[in-house]
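wait is this the right file?? whatever heres the structure
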């Protein structure tokens, strides 16, 4: 009887041990993952790497990778073929454009990642597509294809980060990148290339014009200085000449005031000498019998 009881106890103990071992009480976590232990519906996180213990049958362990993951929008990552339903968008100037993006993310909170929503990655992709279309629609096609890519990426990233904080689904946006952007047809692509070439030509023309301007301005400034100096010299000369004539007139007037008749005669003789330099004067003695021929400079007091 005792032997049967011992056998039964041994069988029960072996069964319990097998069940215990089947429950895998030990589990490990590596450096690039975290775990969530579910104890009858109550989750707790385990973040430190190494071996950990769980209560078999009462606790379940879910491991979550914390490495940076990603997904494309607008193309198939394996075949690299375009997915137009995702990539084809309309710009603010009502042009169509194909834009491919790549989203990088990581799990920031394992518990929220597992329990806050059913498909957090799909939620992130849906939000990303919504903000991408919304933002692309605010920019002209030229900016989307050429100069505005960095600004567009930054704006979408800011919007997504803010929205993920509100949704609180345990995901963190790492980066969003425009992989490619192009017009939907070859003809439109050639037109955009022509526009870009024209822009480059415009920039070259502007640079050449600025170079010519910078070369000509110093020469023009030097010429202006030369003209100003010449004008100043002419001004000073004429002022000095006018002052000299005024001084001469004042001197003559002072002599005229002293003896008006003599001054008048002298001025008359000087004027005659200037107007008629070869004129000879005959002086009549008054008696009607004698006359003399005298040179003009004798009367004016000058010698030939």
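ok assuming it is, sequence goes like this
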């Amino acid at each position: 009887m005792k032997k049967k009881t011992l056998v039964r106890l041994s069988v029960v103990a072996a069964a319990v041990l097998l069940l215990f071992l089947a429950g895998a009480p030990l589990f490990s976590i590596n450096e690039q993952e975290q775990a969530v232990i579910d104890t009858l519906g109550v989750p707790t996180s385990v973040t430190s790497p190494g071996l950990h213990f769980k209560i078999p049958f009462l606790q379940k362990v879910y491991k979550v990778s914390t490495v940076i993951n990603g997904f494309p929008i607008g193309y198939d990552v394996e075949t690299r073929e375009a997915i137009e339903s995702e990539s084809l968008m309309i710009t603010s100037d009502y042009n169509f454009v194909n834009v491919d993006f790549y989203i990088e993310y990581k799990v920031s909170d394992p518990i929220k990642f597992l329990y806050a929503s059913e498909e957090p990655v799909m939620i992130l992709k849906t939000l990303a597509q919504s903000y991408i279309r919304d933002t692309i629609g605010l920019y002209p096609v030229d900016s989307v294809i050429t100069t505005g890519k960095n600004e567009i990426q930054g704006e979408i990233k800011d919007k997504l980060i803010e929205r993920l904080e509100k949704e609180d689904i345990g995901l963190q946006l790492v980066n969003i990148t425009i992989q490619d952007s192009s017009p939907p047809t070859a003809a439109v692509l050639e037109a955009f290339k022509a526009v870009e070439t024209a822009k480059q030509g415009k920039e070259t023309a502007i640079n050449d014009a600025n170079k010519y301007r910078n070369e000509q301005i110093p020469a023009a400034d030097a010429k202006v200085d030369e003209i100003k100096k010449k004008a100043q010299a002419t001004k000073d000369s004429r002022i000095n000449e006018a002052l000299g004539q005024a001084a001469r007139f004042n001197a003559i007037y002072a002599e005229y005031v002293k003896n008006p008749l003599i001054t008048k005669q002298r001025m008359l003789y000087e004027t005659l000498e200037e107007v008629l330099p070869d004129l000879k004067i005959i002086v009549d003695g008054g008696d009607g019998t004698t006359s003399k021929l005298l040179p003009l400079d004798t009367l004016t007091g000058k010698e030939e």
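The radius of gyration is 54 Å. so i think its the right one actually
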